[in-house]
């Protein structure tokens, strides 16, 4: 067996199952899961109809690069969304469809990390999406965690990375908007990262799958492609971005997304993927084309999330240390005591599941930046989110909670 498998840690939800073992929550209260970021809003009919109409495509093998019509739809969407110059994102060379960003975020590290170099590092935020860490470990690299704290706006403190660490860095994962904080990098910060990538010759993997869940259409989160283009790099050198229909279009089961950016990197990544065996099925491509070509369902989706945040934050105001994120559908709330104790007791008393923040992060010399927080995903129906907020408030006002 690959010995690097022994370096993998349990997934956060495995830890959560263990945390809840032995608890019998109140039977009269329905369970409200706020722990996992699985969108539950209705899928767009336009995508479902396209999927159904294309089932005959299952009779043939798809190509790894995906159909040109899909790549053109993706290219058009990205150029419009991130205000790129017309024709600047070549659907032939700079776009690859993928079966959800999770598999692509993992696979990229296997493709680009050179384990023969001394001390290969993969930098990533902390807290983080655990795929980043697993990808680094199984690529033969060492993860280097960049702690995200409230006093830095939940953005990486680049000054804490030494010159030797930048020299050894081969891949930098960023999540923008951030999971779990919802913090958004501005273009100036992203251009600072780009300058470091060019100076030290590493690749930026920009996970932007939450970019379409935000609260103002007038000022949506910027992306790394736009930052590169406006920094004078029309070829997006050393940049690969990841987008998905899971959050944007409520299609997590479709497993559809794309990677785009540096044509040189994508050429080698395409070569890797032809061996990896992960071509997108034709019906999935048809549904994806329909989804990328339609913005009306995305606006409706955002409006529903906005209603949830407005309602939940009003209920929790004055009782819980929590703020509206810049984007995304998570609340990154402080707990009155230990985050595991809070999550376990909330489940026991109110039948609500939240995810301890320490499960999303790693201990470093500066501490564990997830400790004392929980992540709450507002993906349940509006009525359930409101009910959950009232239950959380009731718990926070209770004697057991105040005793923590």
UniProtKB/TrEMBL annotation:
Pfam annotation, one family: Aminotran_1_2
A single GO molecular function term of this UniProt record: succinyldiaminopimelate transaminase activity
Keyword annotations: Aminotransferase, Transferase
SUPFAM superfamilies recorded: PLP-dependent transferases
Designated name of the protein: Succinyldiaminopimelate aminotransferase
GO biological process entries: lysine biosynthetic process via diaminopimelate
Cofactors (names): pyridoxal 5'-phosphate
Organism: Ectothiorhodospira haloalkaliphila
Aminotransferase class I/classII large domain segment(s): 32-378
